[in-house]
């Protein structure tokens, strides 16, 4: 256990000294502000047109400028935007060792390869959790500034728990990206896996089979398909868990058994 703690500290230190966390934090901050902008427009579309925020003949429908609507938008941001952003976090953590040529030095340390992989996943989960908390805090601040109606402590708690659940599932289904980045020995294969995941999740959900496709489940659970769509069931959630566990185990197996010939 002490070796795992040390490995986590090392990975966290490498992450802290990088500019990537700042970039991801800025991306999620921007997402919260864009959500607030949509709420501002929905509050008074005439005012938005006069300020040049909405075209003269354009209208926005299907959403309400209130707390439940804003919370739903934040959850959808964590699902859709998180698929890309969380995936890139995983790609960076695993692909950087190969792209920067430090993987052999890392594997020469008196720490097992499995411990290194677990440490990277722990840092990835913590990183994505902090991004989700930042999204929630900024969302609460933006909603308070806008004076959105419909505030209720019970609704807020339920919405924030859903936001965390959506983020957790999104992180879980992106774990196989670590295997892609590792097997491809760099960023390119990992990024390709992220793009393929986003594309397939959209296509399968549009065909009506998203409830049984793990990468579509977080977005459907967030309500991105609309309130009329049924929530994913036990099978969908179970597949999310299996993909998350399988991604971690598969990555650990590859790091343990693969030949590092360059």
UniProtKB/TrEMBL annotation:
Pfam families: ABC2_membrane_4. Keywords: Membrane, Transmembrane, Transmembrane helix. The keyword Heme does not apply. The chain crosses the membrane at residues 20-42, 70-95, 116-145, 151-174, 186-210, 230-255. It comes from the Bacteria. This is ABC-2 type transport system permease protein. It comes from Saccharothrix variisporea.
């Amino acid at each position: 256990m002490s070796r795992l703690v040390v490995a986590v500290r090392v990975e966290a230190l490498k992450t802290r000294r990088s500019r990537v966390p700042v970039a991801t934090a800025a991306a999620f901050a921007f997402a919260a502000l864009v959500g607030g902008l949509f709420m501002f427009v929905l509050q008074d579309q005439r005012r938005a047109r006069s300020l040049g925020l909405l075209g003269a003949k354009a209208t926005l429908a299907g959403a309400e400028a209130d707390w439940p609507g804003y919370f739903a938008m934040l959850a959808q941001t964590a699902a859709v935007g998180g698929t890309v952003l969380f995936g890139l976090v995983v790609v960076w953590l695993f692909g950087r060792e190969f792209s920067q040529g430090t993987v052999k030095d890392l594997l020469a340390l008196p720490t097992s390869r499995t411990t290194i992989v677990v440490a990277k996943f722990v840092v990835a989960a913590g990183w994505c959790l902090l991004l989700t908390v930042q999204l929630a805090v900024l969302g609460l601040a933006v909603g308070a500034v806008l004076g959105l109606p419909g505030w209720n402590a019970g609704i807020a708690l339920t919405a924030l728990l859903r936001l965390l659940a959506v983020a957790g599932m999104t992180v879980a289904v992106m774990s196989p990206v670590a295997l892609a980045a590792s097997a491809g020995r760099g960023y390119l294969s990992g990024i390709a896996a992220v793009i393929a995941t986003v594309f397939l999740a959209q296509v399968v959900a549009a065909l009506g089979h998203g409830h049984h496709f793990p990468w579509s489940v977080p977005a459907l659970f967030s309500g991105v398909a609309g309130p009329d769509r049924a929530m994913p069931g036990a099978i969908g959630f179970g597949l999310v868990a299996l993909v998350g566990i399988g991604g971690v185990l598969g990555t650990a197996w590859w790091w343990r058994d693969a030949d590092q010939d360059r």
